Amino acid sequence: MTDAHKELHIGAGENRKDNGSVLLDAAKTATRLLPRQINDEIALAKLELEHKKSKVSGVAIFAALALVFTVLLVIALVVAAIAGLATVVPLWLSALIICAALLVVVGISGLIGYKKFKSLLPLLPQQALRGIRHDIGIIKEGRDFDPSSLDRVELTKEQKKAAAAEADAAAAKAKAERAAKEAEHGPKANENELLARTAARREHLLGLREDLVSEADVKKQATYLVDTAKTRARETINLAASGAVGQAVETAKERWKPLAVLAVSATVCGLLLRKLLKK
Asked: Do 200 and 10 contact (CB within 8 A), yes or no?
């Protein structure tokens, strides 16, 4: 039986216990099922995104076609401008004039954009980030924290290469661990299995929620506690009574001879007294 079929039969073989244990069992089962439900929902979302990739690729193709034709339109307009200017000056001169004009526009636009982008650097709020790191350092180390450690240290080329190699090794190790973990759980479930599994688990969670709401009722729990106390008191009384009877029987077994002698003596005394009274 695969993992998907096992998930579809969650809780099928669980036995119902008394009212006190149902509440605890329902809470434990819900705690076990909720992470699995969330993981399957995430996997289902990933599959849906993969299905949408094909549609997005179609949209990207048509957007690229529109961009290409827009570029061709701009080229046609430039050619028309060159042809129109060629009626006044030679063709080569008109093309050169149009190219020079476009070069000036591109240069001015690029220079303005570069200056605006440079004014935004660094893009992240450095003071706020430094303040947050400073606060975290104080929380961790208190007065022993050194604020100078927040200043960025310029690394050499060798140090940068070593840091990049270390990061690549850590990423490869993490990828290998994820692959090993996925291999332990077996093959991934397809979309139909995920839908069936999440639906079955959702129904199970709904039943567990109803059990929790029902068993968490104050009156029901109070009644259960009272019944439990009565049962335990009755068992204690019965145990005490059976112990007393057993003790009496044991006492009678141990002292039956003296009691028999006493009974015979009392009978003889009674007969003698009766004869004396008759005389």
From this structure: yes
- How far, in Å, CA of 97 to CA of 117, rounded? 30
Q: Are 22 and 16 in contact (CB under 8 A)?
A: yes
* Nearest C-alpha neighbor of 149 from the set 130, 127, 121: 130
Query: What three-state secondary structure class fits 86?
Result: coil
DSSP state of 148: G
pLDDT digits (tens, 9 = 90+) for 137-146: 888 888 788 8
- What is the CB neighbour count within 10 angstroms for residue 194? 22
**Rounded Cα–Cα distance for residues 196 and 190 (Å):** 10
Give me the phi and psi of 216, to 5 degrees please: -85, 0
Phi and psi torsions of 93, nearest 5°: -70, -40
**Predicted structure pTM score:** 0.37
Provide the Cα torsion 83, 84, 89, 92; round to 10°.
Answer: -20
d(Cα 55, Cα 57) in Å, to the nearest integer? 5
Answer yes or no: are the C-beta atoms of 212 and 30 closer than 8 Å.
Answer: yes
Write out pLDDT tens, residues 30-81.
888 888 888 888 888 888 878 777 777 778 888 899 999 999 999 999 999 9
Q: Residue 16: is its pLDDT beyond 90?
A: no
Give the whole-angstrom CA distance, residue 223 versus residue 230: 11
Query: 258 preceded by cis ω (within 30°)?
Result: no
Tokens for 20, please give them. Answer: 């006190």
